[in-house]
Design a protein that fits this description.
A: 486 residues, alpha/beta, 5-stranded mixed beta sheet, 17 helices, B: 407 residues, TIM Barrel, 2 domains, 6-stranded parallel beta sheet, two-stranded antiparallel ribbon, binds iron/sulfur cluster
Chain lengths: 486, 407
């Protein structure tokens, strides 16, 4: 039997060294007895160092588990190390009883370390040097302000100070601090972190901020919703004695019932006198739909409040048309897409990109055209993380034609291009497929309407050849429109 | 008024905001100057007896308000005691609490004084002072003021880790009725703007320079449950539109809770805490378990979730034909639908079954909730037999009715 006695400090390194040598020398777990502190036996001499390689995951697991207080941790880790020689994937099997046990120990250590980050409470203590006075009693303005000093007492379950202290060093770099625990301590001075042995509970001076913190703790609590089990599972009682705010809990609970009762029995009060006037003034200034629509601007403002169909409460906003009010050409798409809905402008998403390219190729300047949609709110269905476009139905198109008609009336374009089936239906009243009608101009009561593909349709075509052809046709149609208007 | 009195009033007024999260932002620390750090997952520094975590100093800048939202204690027509912090007071409280390790940072919201823009500008000033003058690297959450100008929203995103814009109520009509100064369309517009600005801030420009990060922890919102008549399915549909439309990190559901000096327009009932809990569970199913609102709704006849059993179990009970599932063969998506299996359990199962067939005890050891799962799974040596289809299966899980009152 090989006896290994690990020292009270530095046992992590000592275990790693011993384990490496023993595994290298082929000593099976059954023949090693691990002890800590000054045991009955002295350590047997260890075999010479050999090369043992382990998966990265084992190094992390061992680092964590070594912080646990379970005296069996050394033997359990060595047993895993031993088995890893023949089964490199062992740690990836959470169903293995030994792995499950070690994972459990590691979880306990991580949780304890997390709770330490949460529940350490610093108190301010006098700075080491009675600064900022220099030797001659005058103010020393040469250097930085003196570092403030803080100290805390904490009682963790496991030996986690070494693994948790760097967190505090990253967070509280501009102050000096000490965290004392029964077994270990950490000190941070002028940016240097050091560790040392534990200490008994110190007498820390009172800190005025604790009263404010208790005020906050008692007032952020809602007495109408008591959930004690939830509190205790996350903030177990064992931590309470070192948490200044926990002293308030009994009184908070004792008073909760009464406070809720008072709220419930209170009669509605009379509003302060000024309230009505304030509300009236604010409401009078709120944007609202104009009573009469006499201009394109009126129509735009009115449309922002439209509730003519159900689409308004699902989409973000009304996407009104855009362009010069005297445009000769008006291009009408189907409805805003995801991007248009968010930004409130027509044809700015991927489909807008296709249209922009086609317009550029056809020599049509975007800023000379009135761009709009047959339906002014985005219709979609949520799917996974995205919103999938849905075609508007007849009722929605008919409801929204009200706005399209107003746009036509105020802009009086000489030619309208309908992109896609929805716009074609909205402008011509015919649902006949676009296949035959594309590239033609149809006469309607409100003027000539040229029909073409919708850029989103082009984007959806799976066949690259067909898509390129459709793009070319859209460009051709735009060019023809430009010629008709020339 | 003393600082302590102000703190009492302005934290009391802030407690109806459910969010206290401080996770998911970029990594920062103070080793190169300043104070504070953020490292992925946030920390809950304390818990109050209402079971909620305290991670941030959650306060209102002021509880004076010119709006009249019926569900809110700060509405202009309420007689609550009013207070207002100065910029310096908020900054000092935040820093001093932070230095003592009480908090992860600040969650600042406010009643509306003078105008939305004036209020939002003051809030932005507080965030800027913390970040720029004090090098504060901790977490900042700003609740934006409805109808504040887009430019202020853009500036807020430069200093805040998270922005929130409360939708308040699940349906536009109830918001217009109960909060007459609020406008659902501008609330959504602000959310849309935050999403677009965030996306733009993550795209490297063609020069390869990274733009300043904008609200790196994303945006969230809150919906009050039980102040209007919206059904659970309506609430979840709204949530799913918000998640997909604006890339929200979280939707918080807040059981409407009686407030002192309540408006006569609203019920003074016990807050529907169990309903709130079930909504969170259903929300989780949508975000991490691949469920759609329609699937959850199909197992919630009448539009409301079953209060006695969790929504995943309710779904499984309504879809028993899909079970029992062969744990050693089923794909990940199917395993995620087993009641009692969480995402961690499922990852462990997938990892472990590469090493050999799993048995019942293996699942217990890996932390699977077998009390629920046993009726829905099949393994070597275990079949639920008639259990899956037994008529009283729901009754086995549902608590006896009188216990429900206690929750
Ligand atoms: S889609 Fe058109 S008709 Fe329907 S609400 Fe929007 S603007 Fe009004
Ligand atoms: S605006 Fe905000 S603070 Fe003011 S009454 Fe409405 S919810 Fe309350």
């Amino acid at each position: 039997m090989q006896v290994v006695v690990l020292p009270a400090t530095g046992w992590r390194e000592a275990w790693r060294d011993a384990a490496r040598r023993l595994a290298g020398a082929g000593v099976p777990p059954g023949e090693v007895a691990w002890q800590t502190g000054a045991g009955l036996f002295a350590s047997d001499p260890l075999p010479p160092a050999g090369a043992v390689t382990v998966p990265r995951a084992f190094v992390d697991l061992a680092d964590t588990v070594l912080c646990h207080r379970d005296p069996e941790r050394f033997a359990l880790l060595y047993a895993v190390l031993w088995r890893l020689r023949g089964d490199r994937g062992l740690l990836e099997n959470p169903a293995d009883p030994l792995v499950a046990r070690l994972n459990g120990l590691a979880r306990a250590v991580r949780r304890d370390s997390h709770k330490m980050r949460a529940f350490v409470r610093f108190r301010e203590v006098p700075a080491a040097v009675p600064a900022p006075l220099s030797g001659d009693g005058s103010l020393d303005c040469g250097g930085d302000a003196p570092r403030r000093r803080f100290a805390a007492w904490f009682e963790p379950d496991h030996l986690i100070v070494a693994r948790t202290a760097p967190f505090f060093a990253r967070r509280f770099a501009d102050m000096d601090w000490t965290i004392l625990t029964p077994d270990e301590r950490a000190d941070f001075r002028d940016g240097v972190l050091t560790q040392g042995p534990g200490a008994p509970r110190p007498d820390l001076p009172p800190d005025a901020s604790e009263a404010l913190w208790a005020t906050y703790f008692t007032n952020i609590f809602n007495p109408a919703r008591i959930k004690l089990a939830a509190m205790r599972s996350e903030m177990p009682r064992k931590y309470w004695k070192n948490l200044p705010e926990a002293r308030e809990i009994p009184a908070m609970l004792a008073d909760a019932e009464r406070r809720v009762g008072v709220m419930r029995s209170a009669q509605a009060t009379v509003a302060p006198v000024r309230a009505a006037a304030i509300s009236e003034r604010y409401r009078a200034d709120m944007p609202k739909a104009p009573d009469r629509i006499d201009s394109l601007a009126d129509a735009c403002r009115a449309a922002a409040h439209c509730t003519r169909c159900d689409l308004h409460c699902h989409a973000t906003q009304t996407v009104w048309g855009e362009g010069p009010a005297d445009a000769a050409l008006m291009i009408v798409g189907e409805q805003p897409g995801d991007h248009e809905d968010l930004s409130g402008r027509p044809f700015v998403g991927p489909a807008g990109g296709v249209l922009d390219e086609a317009m550029a190729a056809a020599g049509v300047a975007r800023d000379r055209v009135w761009l709009t949609n047959a339906v002014k709110h985005f219709k979609f269905t949520p799917r996974g993380k995205r919103r999938l476009h849905q075609s508007p139905d007849r009722g929605e198109i008919d409801a929204c034609r009200w706005w399209l008609d107003l746009e036509r009336r105020f802009i009086q374009p000489r030619l309208i291009m309908a992109l896609g089936g929805t716009a074609a239906y909205a402008l011509t009243g015919s649902k006949t497929g676009l296949g035959r009608r594309r590239g033609t101009v149809e006469e309607t009561a409100a003027g000539p309407v040229m029909l073409s593909w919708h850029p989103s349709y082009i984007l959806r075509l799976p066949d690259a050849g067909a898509a390129a052809e459709a793009r070319a046709q859209l460009t051709e149609d735009l060019a023809q429109a430009a010629r008709l208007l020339a | 008024m003393t600082l302590s009195r102000k703190l009492a009033i302005l934290s009391d007024a802030a407690k109806y905001d459910a969010s206290c999260a401080s996770s998911g932002t970029e990594r920062r620390d103070s080793r190169k100057g300043g104070l504070g750090s953020t490292e992925g997952s946030g920390i809950c520094h304390a818990y109050t007896p209402d079971g909620r975590c305290i991670s941030l100093l959650k306060i209102l800048m002021t509880n004076f308000c010119i709006f009249d939202c019926a569900y809110c204690i700060n509405r202009v027509s309420s007689n609550v005691e009013r207070a207002r912090f100065t910029v310096d007071e908020v900054v000092t409280l935040t820093l001093e609490f932070y230095r003592r390790n009480y908090i992860e940072g600040l969650f600042l919201s406010s009643g509306i004084i003078r105008s939305p823009d004036v209020t939002m500008a003051d809030m932005v000033r507080i965030a800027r002072t913390l970040r720029v003058d004090h090098g504060f690297k901790g977490y900042i959450h700003l609740k934006t003021i409805p109808d504040a100008s887009p430019e202020l929203l853009d500036e807020a995103g430069l200093y805040a880790d998270r922005l929130s814009i409360n939708i308040e109520l699940p349906q536009d009509a109830s918001l217009r009725e109960l909060a007459p100064e609020k406008r659902p369309e501008t609330i959504r517009q602000a959310m849309g703007r935050v999403r677009l600005t965030r996306e733009a801030s993550r795209d490297r420009s063609h020069t390869g320079k990274r733009p300043a990060s904008f609200a790196p922890a994303g945006q969230s919102t809150q919906m009050i449950v039980g102040a209007d008549r919206a059904s659970d399915t309506a609430i979840l549909s709204t949530a799913s539109r918000l998640y997909t439309g604006y890339g929200l990190k979280r939707v918080y559901y807040s059981a409407f809770s009686p407030i002192p000096d309540a408006s006569a327009a609203l019920p003074l009932v016990k807050p529907p805490l169990m309903r709130e809990h079930r909504l969170y569970q259903a929300d989780w199913l949508m975000r991490f378990y691949g469920f759609s609102v329609d699937e959850i709704a199909a197992a919630a006849p009448g539009g409301d979730l079953d209060l006695a059993v969790d929504p995943k179990l309710a779904w499984a009970l309504a879809n028993r034909a899909d079970f029992p599932l062969d744990v050693n063969r089923a794909p990940r998506e199917a395993l995620l639908r087993v009641p009692g299996f969480g995402t961690k359990t499922v990852s462990r199962i997938l990892s472990a079954r590469r090493h050999g067939a799993l048995r019942y005890d293996d699942l217990v050891r890996m932390g699977a909730g077998m009390k629920k799962a046993r009726a829905f799974v099949r393994l070597p040596g275990w079949t639920p037999g008639a259990l899956t289809d037994s008529a009283d299966l729901r009754a086995r899980f549902a608590p006896p009715p009188e216990q429900l009152q206690l929750i």
